[in-house]
Amino acid sequence: MTQAQRIALGSVVVGAVVLVVKLAAWFFTGSVAILSDALESIVNVATAIAALVAVRVAARPPDASHPYGHHKAEFFSAVLEGVMIVIAALLILHEAWGRFWEPAAITQPWLGSAIVVAASVINGAWALVLIRKGKALKSPALSADGKHLQTDVVTSIGVIIGIAAAVATGWYWLDPLMAALVALNILWSGWHVIASSLSGLMDESVSEDELADLRNLISDHAEGAVEAHDLRTRVAGRATFVDFHLVVPGDMSVTAAHEICDRIEVALKKHLEECIVTIHVEPEDHAKHTGIVVL
């Protein structure tokens, strides 16, 4: 099992624990806001399972049907997570709307709030782990899961504030109102997750700063060539695909040109841990004089 898979499995366990804790808080209080928080945790568990499956699929090596690998499986998981977040938000809004017109008193509010705080601490700590590891492992599924958990922490803080205000004023309609605000926050989070994942499915390029680094690496390690042009990149999960045209002197041997390509490829793969490089070699009369000048 890879490190990404172990972390994804950890998310399933953490999500299940937090769900049980929040359901206990709802049992003691009867708060619709806490119920909405628990419903989001159900989504957390479901999306953690989806992320685990996606990470396992993405780790598979290329095969005859998928010669470029299975890296994009993680983006599908992230999109699914965004959709499920939106569905959870709509369910919460439905519940909040009915309770707003028939507000009920909250029982044992401080015990329930303490339980929610404990669940939030667990979620917050694990969210930091997921975001840090997701960035290090270039895993969209883990990063999306971490950002979702951060939203869950903000949600829980809002729930606690709403309960405190409702108990202090006796205005128990504040409880479903806070649940509705929680749902709107979740909707925003779901849209953000979907939008960021769709960019990956659309073969988004690396950042401008990263592109500049790649240009410099090609220039520094292409001694013997004339120039490089038509540099293109795309990111698919942990993998970065790089392809460009390398212009060499017309009388250069195939062996010498191949040695230059190998040197560039080694440098790029050292810079980007999972990098797939394609280089098209051209003779000098194909130079465009608009690409990467070789130092």
From TrEMBL:
Keyword field: Membrane, Transmembrane, Transmembrane helix, Transport
Transmembrane segments: 7-29, 41-59, 79-98, 110-131, 152-174
Highest rank taxon of the organism: Bacteria
Bilayer topology: Multi-pass membrane protein
Primary location group: membrane
Domain called Cation efflux protein cytoplasmic: residue spans: 207-284
One Pfam family here: ZT_dimer
Cellular-component GO terms for this entry: plasma membrane
Record GO biological process: intracellular zinc ion homeostasis
Residues covered by the Cation efflux protein transmembrane domain: 11-202
Localization in the cell: Membrane
GO molecular function: cadmium ion transmembrane transporter activity; ferrous iron transmembrane transporter activity; zinc efflux antiporter activity
Family: Belongs to the cation diffusion facilitator (CDF) transporter (TC 2.A.4) family.
Name of protein: Cation diffusion facilitator family transporter
Protein source organism: Thalassococcus halodurans
